[in-house]
């Protein structure tokens, strides 16, 4: 027997907030499908963030149908109890357990979806649903809508406009509530522990995957059930690949090691990048290169406060990194020309920030009516400038070729500025030098 670990009242409040904005509609949110890896083995399962956000329910083959103002209002389709399957795969709540433990008004077995869903949509004015996100479930909804339309014949009703639920749910998830901030802070702290452990462990000769194991072991040991995304452990020139996935090379004396890894905690994730020398000592060239990125990162952290436009962080990053590239002699010419022609993109091809929360690239609009969104207290995001010089770049001075540096922290906007939630992961050269290889 399992019990929910999070107070169901938290999810209830969220549903109430959603219901207040969607009276007369039905909000339908299906679970992620399970993915088969081979034969009887599945890829590790992690619930769809929107569904978890509204229910706390973690099982696959479940669907939320929320019908604000109607009875029953909170409906969940879940897997049936099944002694045989539970012997193999473990406990499932079943409809009764869902009603008892999760405050569901009415739960049905998932295999009744085609029969029951049309009845739940009768009298509903519109449907909030994200089409083409879960194409398997799209089919169930399509059949239900057809059935409602036929039934309602020439009554003039039953057109049921479908509205993407992402905007409304994205806005709800964008500014974090106090309890969400607590969880995100914890995810960030655990993530920082993983980075510190990696620094302590790293020395010339270790393999990237051994460092990855230390990072993820530390996450688990501090209470994180899973990683927020695939860890990037990239030594030497591999650091110039933004989302390097191989993590299988030996870390060499003289090389830098870039680690981008984050732990989940209560379905919120940290997202930290640190770059440090395998041997613990930066060369002069590496120091000059690293300090430029660090300077930009600190400048962006300093400018964060309510009211500034999200885009202003990217604009300032581009200006400062362009100046850095000129000062290092990696680019030549005028800053204006480089920015106008986007020539910096060869060395800085990504954004300086993205929303952070239950998903590493979290939901929420970046623009409102075409204008960059202004920051408000409670918004959480990363600050992650980087510079990457391809190994075979004939235009850059030789000493910089193959260098990749990214420094990434996670912040929440406060009334006066921001709180850096990942500050326990060192990023100053002398702080990192004092622990690298000393584990
Ligand atoms: N870890 C992915 C990113 O930094 O956006
Ligand atoms: Mn990031
Ligand atoms: Mn990252």
Protein architecture, described:
37% of the residues lie in helices and 16% in strands. It has helices at residues 8-21, 49-55, 83-89, 94-102, 113-121, 135-152, 166-174, 178-201, 208-221, 284-303, 310-328, 335-340, 429-433; strands at residues 25-30, 36-38, 41-42, 63-66, 74-78, 106-109, 126-128, 162-163, 232-235, 256-261, 264-265, 268-269, 272-277, 367-368, 371-372, 380-383, 386-388, 404-406, 409-413, 418-420. The model has no long low-confidence stretch (mean pLDDT 97). It starts with 7 loop residues before the first helix and ends in a 6-residue tail after the last helix. With 439 residues, it is an alpha+beta fold. The longest helix is centred in the middle third of the chain and has 24 residues, at 178-201. The strands form 7 sheets. The chain has a 6-stranded mixed β-sheet, sandwiched between helices. It has a 3-stranded antiparallel β-sheet with strand order 9-10-13. Glycine binds next to loops.
């Amino acid at each position: 027997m399992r019990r929910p670990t999070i107070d169901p009242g938290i999810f209830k409040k969220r549903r109430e907030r959603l219901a207040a904005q969607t009276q007369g509609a039905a909000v339908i949110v299906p679970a992620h499908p399970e993915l088969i890896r081979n034969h009887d083995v599945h890829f590790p399962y992690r619930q769809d963030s929107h569904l978890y956000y509204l229910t706390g329910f973690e099982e696959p083959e479940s669907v939320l149908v929320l019908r604000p103002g109607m009875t029953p209002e909170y409906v969940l389709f879940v897997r049936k109890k099944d002694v045989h399957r539970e012997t193999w795969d473990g406990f499932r709540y079943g409809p009764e357990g869902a009603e008892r433990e999760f405050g569901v008004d009415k739960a049905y077995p998932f295999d009744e979806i085609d029969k029951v869903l049309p009845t739940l949509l009768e009298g509903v004015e519109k449907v909030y649903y994200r089409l083409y996100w879960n194409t398997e479930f799209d089919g169930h909804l399509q059949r239900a809508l057809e059935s409602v339309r036929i039934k309602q014949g020439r009554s003039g009703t039953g057109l049921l406009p479908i509205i993407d639920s992402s905007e409304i749910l994205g806005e709800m998830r964008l500014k974090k509530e106090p309890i969400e901030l607590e969880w995100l802070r914890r995810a960030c702290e655990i993530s920082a522990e993983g980075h510190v452990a990696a620094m302590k462990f790293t020395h010339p000769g270790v393999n990237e995957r051994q460092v990855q194991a230390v990072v993820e072991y530390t996450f688990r040991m501090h209470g994180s059930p899973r990683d927020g995304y695939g860890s990037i452990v990239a030594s030497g020139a591999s650091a110039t690949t933004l989302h390097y996935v191989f993590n299988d090379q030996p870390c060499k004396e003289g090389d830098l090691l870039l680690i981008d890894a984050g732990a989940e905690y209560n379905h919120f994730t940290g997202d930290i990048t640190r770059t440090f020398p395998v041997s613990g000592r930066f060369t002069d060239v590496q120091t000059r290169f690293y300090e430029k990125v660090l300077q930009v990162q600190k400048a962006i952290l300093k400018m964060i406060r309510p009211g500034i436009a999200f885009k202003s962080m990217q604009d300032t990053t581009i200006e400062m990194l362009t100046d850095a590239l000129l000062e290092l002699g990696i680019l030549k010419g005028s800053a204006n020309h480089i920015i106008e022609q986007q020539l910096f993109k060869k060395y800085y091809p990504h954004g300086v920030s993205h929303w952070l929360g239950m998903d590493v690239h979290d939901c929420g609009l970046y623009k409102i009516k075409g204008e960059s969104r202004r920051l408000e207290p409670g918004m959480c995001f990363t600050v992650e400038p980087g510079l990457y010089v391809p190994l075979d770049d004939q235009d850059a001075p030789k000493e910089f070729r193959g260098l990749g540096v990214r420094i990434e922290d996670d912040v929440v906007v406060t009334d006066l500025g921001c709180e850096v939630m990942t500050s326990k992961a060192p990023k100053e050269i002398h702080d990192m030098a004092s622990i690298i290889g000393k584990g």
